[in-house]
Amino acid sequence: MKRFLAAERALRAAAPHELLDAIRAVLTEQYGAEDVELFMADYGLTVLQPVSALPLAGEPVSVHNSPAGRAFGSQEPYREEERGGRARLHLPVSVRGDRLGVLSVTLPGTDAARRWAPELAEAADVLARELIVAERDTDLYLQARRKDRLTLAAEMQWQLLPGRSCSRAEYDLGAQLEPAYAIFGDNFDWSSTADHLMLYVTNGMGEGIEAALLTNLAINALRNARRAGLSLADQAALADQAVYAHYQGRAYLSVLMFDFDLGTGRARVVDAGSPRLVRLRRGVVEHVTFEAQLPLGMFEETDYVAQDFHVEPGDRLVFVSDGVHAAASPKGEEYGEEALARAIHSTRLLPAAEVPRAILRELGGHRGRSAPDDDALVVCLDWRGRPPGDRTDGGQM
User: Fold this and answer.
1) Which of 174-178, 244-248, 267-271, 334-338 has the lowest mean pLDDT?
2) Which strands, in side-by-side order, build the sheet including 376-383?
3) Residue pLDDT, tens place only, 237-277
4) Measured between alpha carbons, how far is 144 from 60 in angstroms, rounded to an integer?
């Protein structure tokens, strides 16, 4: 435990850009590590980029078929045996379910790897939290996440997101946007309290920087209303006014909004546009529809009404933008509801964080080699709910 505390202190004392140097030095001194590398997951979730070799001079490793990728996908430590009796531990670097990357530590022997694996896994958790804080003060780790240059619109959209995955006792969330390095209008946002989860899935009209500006305005208007304690319908109305005041109806944004009660599974919903919901319940995939309302900013002073919805423990909810369900093949065939239902059923055994990437990969096969006509968004929510009698008094519905 003294070794772990030394690692924790070193990370907390390190300058933002020196976290890798700090963890490398303390793991070498306290655990006899022979090599320490930090890999960050790229925006497309296809490779793990080495932090120690900027600017992009090091070799990335695959998320799909590498030892480090195995640890990243499973979110469990993975031990790799190396020549000379050495062992290499690949440790997930994650914060509350948000998967940032992998810490790879080479130790002098298998016995040392087995002995120190639990403490090193905790050190990787501390590193993850320090990375989140450090990103406020350095671009180093954000640079390491990109294997290609982001468009300006994509830069704006990624900075707007809460994360790509999140876990609590009541639920798991995972989300992904494509094309990862050139997105412009689609977005998602979530926020939780003691008793509630609010989730927004948005699809802004237009292309490039104009679409990104529209989405930034709408998301920040929704956040402003949410943080003022307004109801879901009032959040939609306030954001609608903000968008209309700026664009006068020339541009608008589609959004699907949820306010889940974590204790009961009851939810309030505002459906204002094109994002869709598909539910997997007890092995059956079904499309869920709500009363359609006007997109945000289409007309002046639109009133919104929240509907009731209910989720059960074991439900999987998959939210998609029109860049998914309306995607066309080279022959012009729409991806459609049946193909989406098959993709959701085929990914039923994957964790929520892995589902969006798997569905988007299958969608890419449908599109063939043609460049996508629209950006695409998939959000997956696995609902466990709260055990009876475990409800807190943190909020009202």
Assistant:
1) 334-338
2) 165-167, 171-178, 376-383, 316-320, 276-281, 284-288
3) 999 999 999 999 999 999 999 999 999 999 999 999 989 99
4) 10
Q: What is the pLDDT of residue 55?
A: 53
Structure tokens at 369: 């080699």
CA distance 280 to 299: 35
Among candidate residues 219, 215, 315, 182, the one with its CA nearest the CA of residue 260 = 315
Residue 83 identity (one-letter amino acid): R
Q: Could you give the CA distance from residue 200 to residue 178 in angstroms, rounded to a whole number?
A: 17
71 vs 93: CA distance, rounded Å: 9
Contact at 8 Å (CB) between 97 and 172? yes
Identity of the amino acid at 108: P
Half-sphere exposure of 215 (CA within 13 A, CB side): 31
Taken as a whole, the chain contains a residue count of 397
Are residues 275 and 320 in contact, defined by beta-carbon separation less than 8 angstroms?
yes
pTM of the predicted protein model: 0.92
- Asked if 6 and 30 count as a contact pair (C-beta separation under 8 A), the reply is yes
| Cα–Cα dist 72/358, whole Å | 15
